Structures are given as C-alpha cells and as structure tokens.
C-alpha cells in the first residue's frame, strides 16, 4: 500500500562527529598498542624497536579521548558519576565498564612503557599483557555500547565488536606506520628501519583482508535482511553515507591499500606503503562516522 | 435540575452508595480511582496544589468551559511583561462535569495561557505615526486615546459610526455601546452567514445541533470537524464507539476527517446540494422517505416534494458531483435505513455561491429521512437566556446601509460616510476573500475616518488602524457565556484568572471609558459600573433557575457551568446521573421547516471552471483556532505551512514535482508556493489552508522570532529565542480569492477558479501579486460570470 | 508476560505482582482524531522545549485516489517492562518506579545520551539549555514520565484528560476490574515494535497499516515533511551541540566536510557554557 507520512516529530541524531573521532582514536590506540606488544609480550623480536614509541603513541591518542567524551556530556562536571560513586554506577551499562577501561588502560600502558624503557623484559611482559587485554577491552566495549541497542539495525549484531576491533587493528597500524615514517623524516634518520615499516604493513594487509571478509558477510546478511537492512545497504553504497562509507572507508581505506599492498612492486616501496597506511588510517574514520551517525540516522525518523 | 445542582461531589458519593459501584468510583484497597480532572499540581514545587479558577474558552467555535490552574508560586520567574512575581496561569484543562467539555480541551486552548506573557502582546494604546499602514506606532496614554476617539465621535453623525466584528464574545456589550452612540451599523465578518441564514429561513433559528453521540450514521458534508470542531469530534467518536455509527464524509479532498471516516466521497466543489436532492428523490421513489416527518415538521407535502425533485436523477447527480451514482445510492439507502442519522455541514457547503440552498437541501434530506428533532438526528438549538444588564438605550432609528461584508469594501465611505470604525475580533485584511480589497478600503483615509482596532495582539487589519487599544486576553476577562450547540444547554462564565498586564483593559471597560469620555450624562447612565464583575453578576444573577440553585457565585466557584446534569463516567466518559445512566436530552421540540422557496440546485459560480482551470479551496488549518494562535509556539510547531495540495496524477500531467515552486493564478492575481503531491484530493481540485504568510500579529506568526533572527521584537521566552526551528511561514492565499458572494445567503465563497503552472522566472516562494482593480470589478458584480 | 526479572536497577517488572500497580495506557486509535490536544497540553504544562516532545502524533495518508485513508498515531514513552534505556544508562539516572513508571533523576544524569540510542521508540530527548522556566533542568535527558506527579495523587495523566476523542485510557493493569484491564482483555491490542523485546506498556487498539512501520516512516515522508526535518536539523541550536544530524540533501564530499566542520565548531563553542552554567 502506498502512502506518505504527513506529520511526525523530529529527532536529533544523538552522537556526532566528535564521538566518531573518539571511536577512531580509541581504535588507533588499541591497534598501535598491539604492535607495541608484539616484541616484548609475544616475543617477535624485530618489533622491539618500535615498542616504546608505539606504546607512548597509543597513550597519547588515548589522552585526547576523555576530553572529547567529557565535553560531549550534557553535564560535563558529572563525569565522575561514571566512576567514583559505586551506587551511581550501573553495571549493566557497557559505558561503565568502558569508563574503567579508559581509566586503567593508559595507566597500564605507561607502566609497560616504563619497563620497556628500563628494558625489564619480565615486568614489561606482565604489564604488556595486561595492557593488551585492556586495549582490546577498551575498544571492544565501544563496539558493545553500539551493539546493545536493539533498534540500531547495523550495529545490533554480535559481530559488531569484532568488526570494530578489526578496524582498530588496521587503523592503528596504519597510523603508527605513517607517524613513524614522519618521525624518520623529521629526524632525518632512520629511527625505525624502513624494512620494519614495510613489515608492519604486511600485518595491516592481513587486517584489511579480514576486515573486508567481515564486511562482505555483513553486507551479505543485509541483502537477506529486512527493508531496514536494505535501506542501510543502499545508503552506504549509493545514498547519504556513500562519502564516508563507500568512498572513504571502502575505496580509500580498504580497496586501494589492498591493491597497493598486494602488488609486489608497490608493497616494497616505502612511499607506497606509507600512502597505503595513511589511507587505511583515515579511511576507518569513515566507518566510524557510519557506525555512530548512520546507525541513528534511520531511526531518527520513527 | 435543582436537585442535581445541589449535590456536590461528596454528597453524591455518600448519598447513592448503591450506584457508586456502577459509576465506577469505588475505592477499595487494590483499585485506586484515577480521576479525570479537578486537580493540578505544581511539579516544580514538589506537587503543591494549584488554585483553580473556572473560565470558558472562546477559542473553538463552541465555547468550552475550562479549569484554569493558577500558581501563586513566588519562586517562579517574574512575568516578563510586568516584572511581577506571584500568580500566573500554568495549566488549562477541561471541566469534567460540563456536558460540553467533559474534561477535554483543544490543542489551542491548552496552549492559550502562553499568550498571557507573550512579548508580542499589546500593552499600551498605540497611535499611528506617518501614513496609514506604514507600520510605525507611538505609545500614547489612555487619556489621550479616549479623548481623541471621543472627540471624533462627538463630531460624527451616529450613522457614520460602525463596527466590524468577527465572533462577538462581548455578551451584549457591543450592541449596548453602539446603541448608546445611536448607531446600529455592524458588519459581521463571520464567514458562515450562508448557513446561519439558511437555518434561520428554514426553522427560525440560526443554528442546528447534530446529535452525533447518539446517532447511527453521520453524513458529513464539507466540514473537517475532527479538526475544526472539537466538540463535534468528541461527540462523533462517542457515537462511533457506543453506537457503531458510520461516518461518511463528502469532501473534494480527503481531509483528516474524511480520511478517518468510514468512507470518503470525493464530490466536486459546490455539488453537495445536487447529491442531497438526488438522494431525496430516490428515497421518495423507493418509499424510504418518512412521510410522517415531512408532514409534521415541514410546510411541504409529499406530492409537492416529488414534483420539485423530479429532475434530480442519479445520472444528473453523478454528472454534477463526479461520483458514481451507485455509491450515492448505497449511502442514501444505508442512511435512511439506519433509523437514526444526522448531517453535519461546514465551510465546505457554506462557502460557495450556492451555499444557502445547499444547506437547505441538506436540511431537506434530514427531514425526509425523519431525523429532525429525533434522537441521533438534527435538532433545534437549546439556550438558556441571560438576564438583562439593566436599562438599555433604545434601538436607534437611523442606520447606515453599508452592513454587508460583501459591500463594505466597495461602498464604505463612498456613498455613505464612515467617520468612526471599530474593528474587533476579526482580521479581514488577512481572512476575507479578496483581502487586498479590504486593505485598500481600510487604508483610505478619505473613506474611513478614524479607525480604531481593539485586540490583544495586532493583526493585519489593525496594522491599518489609527489607534489600537490593548484589550485583555480571555483569561483576564469577566463575561457570561451561553452554550451554543449542546442539546443539554448551559450557561458559564469567563472570569479573571490573573490580572491583565500593564495598562490593558477589558473590552467592557474600554467601551465604558469611551462613553464616559464623551461627557454626556444621558449616555453615561447606561455604563455605570466600576468592575466588570458587576455586569457579570447582573447577567448571570438574573437567571431564575440559577438563582434558586444557589446563585452564580457558587457556580463560579463550584463548577463554572450551570446546570450540572451529572458526573463524568470514568469509563464511558459521558455525563451520567445518580444511577449511572447517561443523561439523555429531551427531543421532539416542535418546529415547521419552511421550504416555500425550494432549495433547487445551481452550480456554484465560484467553482465553475473552464478546461484549463481547477478549483482552489482554502480551508481552515489544523490547530490554529483564530489568527492569534498563529503566534503560539506550540501550535505553530505542529502546523505544517500551507503548501498547495495537488493530486499526484494531475501534477504528473503538468510535470510538477513534489516540493517544486508553482504559480497559482486566479483571474485577479497569482501567488507562488510549493506543490505538495498527494493522493488525497480530487484531480481537478487544489487546496491550501488559510493560515500562511502572516506579516503581523507577532514574531512567531510573521517568522521574525527565533534564533535565526536578530529581531528587535525578541521574545520574552528563551525557548522561542533559542529553540524555534522551523522556517517556512507559508503563503497568504486570500488575496487571490475572487470576492464572489451567494446572493441569497450573503456570505463569500471560499473557493476560486485558478490556473496552475510551474513558477516563472523571478518567482519566489511567498510572492503574492494581485490586481485590486480587478478585485473591485468582480466584487461589484458580486458574482463570477461562468 | 515476561518472567524475566530485571536486574541491576533493583526493581523487577510489577506486572502481576501482588501489592504493586502496573500503570499502563491504551490508545484506542478508532477514537483518536489526531487533534494534538495531548501534545499541546503536555508540552505547555511540562515546559517541553521546542524541538523536543514527550508525546507527539504521527500522521499518514495511505492508498490511492479515490481509496485513501488517513492514519494517526500518538506516540509517547512506552514505560517498557524491559526498558533498554535503563539497561544502558551508566548512572542509574533513569530507573524503574515499582509501579511501572520509567523515570528520570535529573541530578544524576550526565547527559551522555546512551539511553536515547537505546530506546527503540525515540521517546527520549536531551533538554536544551534554554527553558521557558529557568528552574527546569537543562542538558539532561528527559522523556514522558506518565505524569507521575499527577498519577501518584490519583489524577490521570494530562494527555489522557484532555484527549478529544477519549482515545487514551490510563490505569492499573494489576487491577482486573480497571478499565484498562478490561480493554486489553476484550480487544486485540498491539504495541509498537514488539520485536525489540522491550515489552511496551502503551497498547494500541486498531493499530494497523504502515504508520507503525519505521521503514515506511523513513522512506515515505512527504517532501514537505522531509524538508521540514532538514530545516530542523540545520537550524536547531541543539542540532549543532549534539552534532550528528545528517542533512541528507547535503551529503556530497563538501557537504560532509561542512557537516564535520559545523559539528566540531558547535561542539567546542558550546563547551564553556556547559561547564560554567551551574548545576541546573
Ligand atoms: N483549527 C481551526 N478550527 C477552526 C477554525 C480555524 O481557523 N482553525 N475556524 C473556525 C471557524 S470560523 C469555522 S467557520 C469553522 C469551519 O470549519 P469547517 O467547516 O470544518 O471548515 P474547513 O476546515 O474550512 O473545511 C471545510 C472542508 O470542506 C471542504 N470543501 C470545500 N468545498 C467543498 C464542497 O463544495 N463540498 C464539500 N462537501 N466539501 C467542500 C474542504 O476541502 C474542507 O475540508 O472552523 C472553526 N474552527
Ligand atoms: N478562503 C477562506 N477564507 C475564509 C475561510 C475559509 O475557510 N476559507 N473562513 C471564513 C470564515 S468561516 C471566517 S469565520 C473568517 C474568519 O476570519 P476572522 O474573522 O478574521 O477571524 P480570525 O481568524 O479568528 O481572526 C480574529 C482576530 O481576532 C483577534 N482576537 C482573538 N481573540 C480576541 C479577543 O478576545 N479580542 C479581540 N478584540 N480580538 C481577538 C485575533 O488576534 C485575530 O486577529 O474567515 C473567513 N475566510
Ligand atoms: S519507550 Fe524508550 S524511553 Fe520509554 S521505557 Fe521504553 S525504552 Fe525506555
Ligand atoms: S543521558 Fe542521562 S539518563 Fe540517559 S543514559 Fe546518560 S546518564 Fe543515563
Ligand atoms: S503521560 Fe504526562 S508526560 Fe507523558 S505524554 Fe502524557 S501528559 Fe506528557
Ligand atoms: S488528544 Fe486524543 S484524540 Fe487528540 S491526538 Fe491525542 S490521542 Fe488523539
Ligand atoms: Mo467561520
């Protein structure tokens, strides 16, 4: 039956670009830290040189996070309601878990950094492990915050946190590679050997492939879904969100880096690798936009 | 009646324990009674009680008794108009015991109290600076205003003093005022003159009451009553639930009412009369007509009737109204067989050049189906008369002939002088068909001498005045009220809930002060009161039954209305008596409908269109009750602006897309608006609502308020200054409506023939261009040649 | 109904619990005239800011000429039995009253808006900093509270009392003799989006057709409504502060950049105000 809506109330989308930025930063941080931990925690020796920088970099990214989050609150002075008064904290809400993760994760990283600086392998491994878990949790919970809203179709999906984490991993490495390369440029010497950066880009490649695999599944599910899923699919590929999603995330952030990284000629050239990393890192912001705003966009009309 | 009045709620509960359970007011441990009104709490101050003052809203077509909740909250922000803290109105709800209200209110009434502290209110008398209509005003003192008005009145012959009014809620004050001055020149701007005249000619009363709550079948011809008549809406919904009443709506567009009816019949504009007459013919033919009713209730015989309607065959009706006749036949049969059917009519039947006869043809249908003065049918009005104020001035002998809304803009001040003109509760510069004509007439200082507008807010008409006097809002006035369309009649009152701000005065005080300023003891003796309450006391206090029941003061405190017929049944939500039975009105008043001049049908000249034309209908908007509600933030937030509704198929033929800029041209001018494509309108009809494109009243109405404007008329409400979000203020449609009138009924048509096309180069949304010369020549002919 | 017990906020659903009430509402759509008296009385009495609604009506036209109909659907907080808003609120600012109300504690709320994302019915809003009455809370979440101030004093909600058509019925479902219990027993009633699992307690009689379908609401907006909605997003002060409002006609590349720019601008420029406005 045809027809049209003649009157309705209007609803704002609840979270905006700053929150998308926060998701992106947390992801970048988690991704970087995973790289940092490879050497000291998981014994992949060749990554030891980047560990200290990567860890501090991850901590730095995470320092911006509370600022964004607190400014975004309607009542910023009350941020401590999330933390300090136990009877105020509502443990069924993932945000409360997140508040503790966001608090403890940088602390864990700092301690880890300290032991890395001290070259204390044992303690670095212990705190590194702890911080890796926290890193994953910090990002995982952001996925869960989105996942547990029954009506937000694209996110209400148990694969959501995994998709989120994969994005984090990819963007984290990309960001790290890009920044370390920049650091080399500014220092005018190879603080981190270029070969290592190229190596890291291999890790990123696996992430990209896995990310695309997950997305493919997600889209596949959507094609078999309800009209709301179809709408979502249409909009990310052709409609309102084509810029953040199709162009920024898919084309710029995944497909083009993928092409660069699978063609041997490019994948061994540091400039191409850095470009691919940059694309990857920025492309994920497009995905975060979609996840934060896209998800509330449709339902804003009902 | 007396008995019921004396029962107050507690006695009622105590005295009839057996019936309590039936009524459902039982209190036991598990079930808490949820009352449907009679109290209110200040939620900011932890639920303190608010003070109740009974009043009666004039905002909907049928006055509605309300409870006004006043907070004596000293912590509340001061009234921004007066800087004073203390009493302010903070809620309005309906009176549960009133048969009219049953606790309910309309959207506009609920939000009416916002206007009390509206920064756009008139607070002091204003005098124009510069030429008329230039929009520059100077505040003057009451003394000066009264002096100037009195001086002009003294210089003027009585018949050159005139009043222009919309709905007169003054309970006789205006009449007394004019008679005091020796004039009886009143131009009534109410748009439903064809209908009231039709009723008056038919049965000697200016109203008709459809008994919607008790009917089985409702035929709605041309009214959007779910939107425009909340009282009818409530009654009809009860009919639907309790009697499974069917609602069939005849309307060229699928209005909200038609869309929520059981059936929508998309008739051509102006064709309702032929539908009615064809139905009458069919019912007579089939022996479905109630011949007894025809004999008892009219001056017709069945034979006469048969003769008169022979030409209204189904085929003819189908051709004229554009609806398959089988549908009409089915409806006619069902309606007649339902046993109890009633007919409602409205601006859609009234507002065409054949409106007078259309209305009468529909009365005939009601008669023929035996539904006159029957339960669930169409009934005569019932009223309780108010008492006299006191000795009144005699009826003046001389009279100015310019009294019709049709002739006024043509004749006023031309052959017949108008030295003083008062405008009250009307806005013809905005609402009258061919409103630009009014603009021209009123702005002409050589034709209209002193022009005095009285109101709570400015409006487009008052913008043309010489002096504007600030009047109290209805929540600040003392006035008696009579019921209009209740089968159980009542009287009520408006009383002052809070004091008016600044130098604002009540209408009765304004009129008194003008008379006193004349310094004529002979005239002043009719205006001897200090407080408006004194007159209220006389008008209500003199009602014999009310006096017996304890007097008006008790009523003012206890319920705001009299008589109390019973109590609101919490489940049925109707007024029930002590035994829990619904109070049923008395039917069967005797009347004789007169059809001496038979209501034959002729096409409406306003809606007769040539090949490339369509009929533009301008109808009431959804929540705006009178123009001043266009300055209410809550009402306007809910109101869509008046884009041109057009059938999708028609639009496709014309290549017009949804939301596209279009130009609507009548013979007198054009306007530019946007197209709203819909399936809910006849393909040969266009529609707009009439409340768009205001340029006066206040910041919300004229689009100057809100965060997007650094307007000097910044509002007193932070919510408006920061949160107002809509931008489209609509387009003023009334300038391009040809001023065509029904020669018999005297009221203007609310439709006009137009051509539609895409907007031309340079056209902008909201543009209106009208040729006043053409308006004038059409107005002079009084009708549109086919 | 559900046997699940709702944890973490200390109060389990009261439906069927002895000694407790379960307040609920029935909206009989056969009687609703779409008059918005409910909206207007609620908005004015509770000083609900422009651009926010505790209750509102949706309206649709359906069918093709000449077989068209109109539909009206008043919407308000469903006071769910399994409210996802509460589950996701990190501070217990929104909580369940033992008699079924889902309520707000303004002084706890941090304005994080998680509850709004969680509510499938769009029943919540963030209060703007600018209220008509300055004593009212600002910058915190709010929604319909089933008129608890009235109901606990034995008075029906304001929207119910003013309802033109008598379409809204309010009462205690735990009392089998209440009107609402009878109505639910004797009529086929529906709730909105039952698949969300929230167990709404606003029940509709005669809910039928596309108006209750979120997809319809999204895809089939009249162009005027669509434009109005975009104006709302573009011009509302709060739109900037909340930020994520996507104006669909402006989402090309530069449009996206403008969106981002505008959002960050208001995000930071509103910040000092939020920090230094004081507690209420
Ligand atoms: N919200 C609101 N309520 C109001 C008012 C208001 O301005 N706003 N004004 C008040 C006043 S003064 C009045 S007189 C009443 C008017 O109240 P109504 O009588 O309900 O008048 P309208 O809403 O103008 O609509 C009449 C309907 O008739 C249709 N129509 C037009 N031409 C024809 C025709 O030839 N035949 C048929 N069958 N239908 C036709 C129109 O499409 C429209 O839907 O409302 C009163 N109530
Ligand atoms: N095309 C088209 N034209 C129409 C109609 C239509 O349906 N279609 N309807 C026609 C009909 S039926 C009518 S009745 C007319 C209505 O047209 P008007 O007679 O102009 O009536 P309102 O729009 O109610 O405007 C009344 C004015 O009175 C002011 N006012 C409100 N309350 C008070 C008060 O207490 N005291 C004073 N002094 N002023 C007050 C308001 O601010 C407002 O400006 O329009 C007619 N014009
Ligand atoms: S409707 Fe929404 S806000 Fe209301 S209780 Fe349910 S989930 Fe919460
Ligand atoms: S906005 Fe307030 S009520 Fe909503 S989730 Fe956040 S703290 Fe809870
Ligand atoms: S129950 Fe009260 S708060 Fe809720 S919508 Fe109705 S009037 Fe508003
Ligand atoms: S007040 Fe009643 S009839 Fe009017 S829109 Fe609201 S629910 Fe419907
Ligand atoms: Mo009218």
Low-confidence stretches of chain B: 1-31
- Rounded radius of gyration of chain A (Å): 20 Å
Level-2 CATH architecture of chain A: Up-down Bundle
- Biggest beta-sheet profile of chain A: none
**What is the distance, rounded to the nearest whole angstrom, between the alpha carbons of the first and last residues of chain B?**
56 Å
Bound molecules: ligand MGD, iron/sulfur cluster, molybdenum atom
Q: Based on DSSP secondary structure assignment, what is the total number of beta strands of chain A?
A: 1
Task: Please provide the ordered H/E string of secondary-structure elements of chain A.
Answer: EHHHHHHHHHH
Total number of helical segments of chain B? 30
How far is the first residue's CA from the last residue's CA of chain A? Answer: 18 Å
Instruction: State the major sheet of chain B.
Output: 7 strands, mixed
CATH class of chain A: Mainly Alpha
* Radius of gyration of chain B, whole Å: 26 Å
* Percent of sequence in beta strands of chain A: under 5%
Structural class of chain A: mainly alpha
Query: Which chain pair shows the most residues in contact?
Result: B-C, 94 and 77 residues
Structural notes for this entry:
The complex is a heterotrimer of chains A (302), B (786) and C (280). Chain A is an all-alpha fold. Chain A has ten helices and one strand; from the N terminus they run E-H-H-H-H-H-H-H-H-H-H. Chain A has one domain (2-301): Up-down Bundle (Formate dehydrogenase/DMSO reductase fold). In chain A, helix 1 packs antiparallel against helix 4 (121-147) and helix 3 (94-118) packs antiparallel against helix 4 (121-147). The longest helix of chain A has 30 residues, at 194-223. The model of chain A has no long low-confidence stretch (mean pLDDT 92). In chain B, the strands form eight sheets. In chain B, strands 7-6-18-17-16-8-9 form a seven-stranded mixed β-sheet, sandwiched between helices. In chain B, strands 24-28-25-27-26-29 form a six-stranded mixed beta barrel. In chain B, helix 7 (193-203) packs across helix 17, helix 11 (272-285) packs across helix 13 (302-309) and helix 11 (272-285) runs antiparallel to helix 14. Chain C folds into two domains: 23-211, Alpha-Beta Plaits; 221-276, no CATH class. The radius of gyration of chain C is 20 Å and the shape is globular. In chain C, strand 2 (55-64) and strand 3 form a beta hairpin. Chain C is an alpha+beta fold. In chain C, strands 8-1-10-9 form a four-stranded mixed β-sheet. A two-stranded antiparallel ribbon of chain C has the order 2-3. The chains are: A mainly alpha (302), B alpha/beta (786), C alpha+beta (280). At the B-C interface, strand 5, helix 4, helix 9, helix 10 and helix 26 of B face helix 1, strand 2, strand 3, helix 4 and helix 5 of C. Bound molecules: ligand MGD (2 copies), iron/sulfur cluster (4 copies) and molybdenum atom.
């Amino acid at each position: 039956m045809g027809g049209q809506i003649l009157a309705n109330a209007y609803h704002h989308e609840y979270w905006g670009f700053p929150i998308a930025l926060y998701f992106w930063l947390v992801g970048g941080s988690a991704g970087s830290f995973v790289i940092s931990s490879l050497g000291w925690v998981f014994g992949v020796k060749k990554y030891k040189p980047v560990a200290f920088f990567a860890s501090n970099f991850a901590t730095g990214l995470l320092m911006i996070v509370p600022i964004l989050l607190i400014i975004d609150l309607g009542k910023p002075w009350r941020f401590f309601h999330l933390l300090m008064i136990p009877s105020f904290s509502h443990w069924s809400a993932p945000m409360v878990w997140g508040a503790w993760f966001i608090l403890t994760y940088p602390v864990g990283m700092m301690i880890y950094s300290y032991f890395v600086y001290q070259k204390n392998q044992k303690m670095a491994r212990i705190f590194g492990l702890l911080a890796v878990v926290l890193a994953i949790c910090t990002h995982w919970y952001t996925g869960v915050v989105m996942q547990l809203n029954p009506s937000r179709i694209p996110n209400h999906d148990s694969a959501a946190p995994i998709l989120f984490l994969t994005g984090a991993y990819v963007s984290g490495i990309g960001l790290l590679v890009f920044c370390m390369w920049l650091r080399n440029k500014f220092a005018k010497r190879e603080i981190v050997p270029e070969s290592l950066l190229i190596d890291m880009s291999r890790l990123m490649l696996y992430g990209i492939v896995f990310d695309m695999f997950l997305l493919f599944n997600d889209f596949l599910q959507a094609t078999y879904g309800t009209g709301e899923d179809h709408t979502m699919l249409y909009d990310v590929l052709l409609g309102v969100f084509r810029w953040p999603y199709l162009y920024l995330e898919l084309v710029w952030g995944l497909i083009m880096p993928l092409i660069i990284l699978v063609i041997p000629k490019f994948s061994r050239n540091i400039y191409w690798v850095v470009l691919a990393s940059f694309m990857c890192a920025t492309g994920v912001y497009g995905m975060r936009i979609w996840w934060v705003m896209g998800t509330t966009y449709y339902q804003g009309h009902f | 009646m007396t008995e019921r009045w004396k029962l107050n709620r507690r006695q009622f509960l105590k005295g009839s324990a057996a019936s309590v359970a039936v009524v459902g007011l039982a209190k036991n441990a598990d079930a808490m009674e949820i009352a449907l009104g009679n109290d209110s709490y200040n939620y900011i101050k932890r639920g303190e009680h608010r003070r109740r003052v009974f009043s009666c809203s004039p905002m909907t077509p049928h006055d509605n008794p309300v409870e006004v909740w006043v907070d004596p909250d000293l912590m509340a922000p001061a009234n921004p108009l007066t800087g004073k803290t203390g009493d302010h109105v903070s809620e309005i709800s309906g009176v549960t015991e009133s048969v009219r209200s049953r606790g309910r209110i309309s959207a506009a009434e609920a939000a009416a109290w916002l206007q009390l502290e509206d920064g756009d209110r008139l607070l002091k008398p204003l005098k124009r600076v510069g030429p008329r209509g230039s929009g520059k005003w100077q505040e003057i003192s009451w003394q000066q205003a009264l002096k100037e008005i009195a001086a002009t009145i003294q210089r003027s012959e009585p018949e050159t003093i005139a009043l222009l009014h919309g709905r007169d809620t003054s309970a006789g004050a205006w009449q007394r005022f004019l008679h005091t001055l020796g004039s009886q020149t009143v131009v009534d701007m109410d748009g439903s003159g064809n209908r009231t005249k039709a009723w008056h000619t038919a049965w000697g009363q200016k109203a008709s009451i459809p008994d919607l709550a008790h009917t089985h079948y409702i035929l709605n011809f041309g009214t959007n009553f779910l939107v425009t008549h909340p009282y009818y809406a409530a009654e009809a919904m009860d009919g639907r639930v309790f009697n499974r009443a069917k609602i069939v709506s005849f309307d060229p567009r699928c209005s909200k009412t038609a869309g929520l009816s059981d059936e929508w019949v998309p008739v051509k504009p102006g064709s309702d009369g032929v539908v009615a007459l064809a139905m009458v013919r069919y019912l007579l033919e089939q022996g479905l007509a109630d011949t007894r009713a025809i004999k008892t209730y009219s001056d017709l015989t069945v034979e006469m009737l048969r003769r008169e309607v022979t030409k209204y065959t189904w085929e003819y009706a189908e051709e004229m109204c554009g609806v398959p006749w089988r549908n009409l036949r089915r409806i006619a049969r069902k309606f007649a067989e339902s046993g109890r059917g009633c007919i409602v009519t409205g601006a859609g039947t009234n507002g065409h050049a054949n409106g007078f006869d259309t209305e009468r043809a529909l009365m005939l249908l009601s008669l023929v189906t035996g539904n006159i003065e029957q339960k669930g049918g169409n009934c005569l009005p019932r009223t309780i008369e108010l008492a006299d104020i006191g000795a009144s001035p005699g009826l003046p002998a001389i009279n100015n002939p310019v009294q019709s809304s049709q002739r006024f803009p043509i004749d006023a001040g031309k052959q017949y002088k108008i030295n003083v003109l008062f405008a009250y509760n009307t806005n013809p510069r905005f609402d009258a068909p061919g409103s630009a004509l009014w603009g021209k007439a009123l702005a002409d200082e050589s034709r209209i001498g002193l022009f005095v507008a009285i109101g709570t807010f400015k409006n487009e008409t008052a913008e043309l005045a010489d002096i504007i006097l600030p009047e109290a809002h209805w929540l600040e006035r003392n006035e008696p009220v009579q019921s209009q369309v209740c089968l159980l009649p009542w009287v009520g009152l408006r009383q002052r809930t809070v004091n008016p701000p600044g130098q604002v005065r009540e209408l009765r005080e304004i009129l008194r002060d003008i008379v006193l300023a004349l310094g004529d003891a002979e005239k002043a003796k009719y205006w001897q009161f200090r407080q408006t309450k004194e007159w209220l006391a006389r008008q209500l206090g003199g009602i014999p039954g009310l006096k017996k029941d304890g007097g008006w003061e008790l009523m003012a405190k206890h319920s705001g209305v009299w008589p109390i017929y019973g109590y609101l049944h919490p489940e049925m939500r109707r007024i029930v008596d002590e035994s829990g039975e619904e109070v049923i009105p008395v039917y069967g008043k005797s009347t004789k409908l007169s059809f001496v001049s038979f209501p034959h049908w002729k096409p409406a000249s306003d809606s007769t269109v040539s090949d490339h034309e369509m009929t533009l209908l301008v109808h009431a908007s959804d929540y705006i009750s009178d123009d001043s509600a266009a300055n209410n933030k809550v009402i306007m937030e809910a109101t869509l602006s008046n884009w041109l509704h057009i059938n999708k198929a028609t639009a496709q033929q014309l290549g017009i897309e949804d939301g596209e800029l279009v130009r609507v041209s009548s013979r007198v001018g054009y306007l530019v608006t946007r197209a709203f494509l819909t399936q809910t309108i006849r393909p040969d009809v266009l529609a707009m609502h009439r409340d768009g494109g205001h340029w006066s009243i206040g910041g919300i109405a004229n689009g100057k308020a809100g965060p997007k404007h650094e307007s000097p008329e910044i509002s007193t409400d932070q919510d408006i200054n920061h949160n107002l979000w809509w931008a489209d203020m609509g387009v003023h449609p009334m300038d391009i409506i040809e001023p065509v009138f029904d020669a018999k009924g005297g009221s203007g048509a609310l439709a006009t023939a137009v051509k539609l096309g895409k907007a031309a180069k340079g056209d902008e949304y909201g543009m209106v261009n009208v040729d006043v010369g053409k308006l004038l020549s059409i107005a002079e002919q009084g009708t549109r040649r086919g | 109904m559900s046997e699940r017990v709702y944890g973490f906020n200390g109060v389990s659903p009261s439906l069927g619990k002895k000694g407790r009430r379960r307040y609920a509402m029935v909206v009989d759509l056969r009687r609703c005239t779409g008059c918005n008296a409910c909206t207007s009385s609620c908005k004015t009495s509770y000083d609900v800011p422009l651009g926010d609604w505790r209750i509102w009506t949706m309206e649709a036209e359906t069918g093709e000429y000449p077989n068209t109909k109109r539909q009206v659907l008043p919407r308000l907080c469903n006071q769910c039995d399994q409210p996802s808003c509460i589950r996701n609120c990190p501070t217990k600012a929104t909580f369940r009253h033992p008699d079924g109300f889902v309520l707000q504690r303004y002084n706890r709320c941090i304005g994080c808006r998680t509850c709004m994302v969680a509510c499938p019915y769009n029943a919540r809003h963030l209060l703007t900093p600018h209220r008509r009455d300055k004593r009212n809370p600002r910058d915190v979440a709010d929604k319909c509270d089933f008129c608890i101030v009235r109901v606990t004093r034995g008075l029906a909600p304001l929207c119910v009392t003013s309802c033109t058509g008598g379409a809204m019925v309010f009462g205690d479902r735990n009392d089998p003799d209440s009107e609402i219990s009878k109505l639910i027993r004797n009529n086929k009633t529906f709730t909105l989006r039952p698949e969300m699992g929230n167990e709404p307690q606003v029940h509709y009689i005669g809910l039928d057709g596309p108006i209750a379908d979120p997809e319809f609401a999204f895809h089939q907006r009249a162009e005027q409504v669509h434009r109005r909605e975009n104006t709302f997003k573009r011009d509302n002060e709060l739109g900037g502060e909340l930020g994520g409002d996507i104006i669909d006609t402006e989402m090309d590349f530069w449009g996206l950049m403008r969106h981002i720019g505008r959002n960050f601008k208001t995000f930071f420029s509103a910040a000092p105000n939020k920090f230094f406005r004081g507690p209420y």
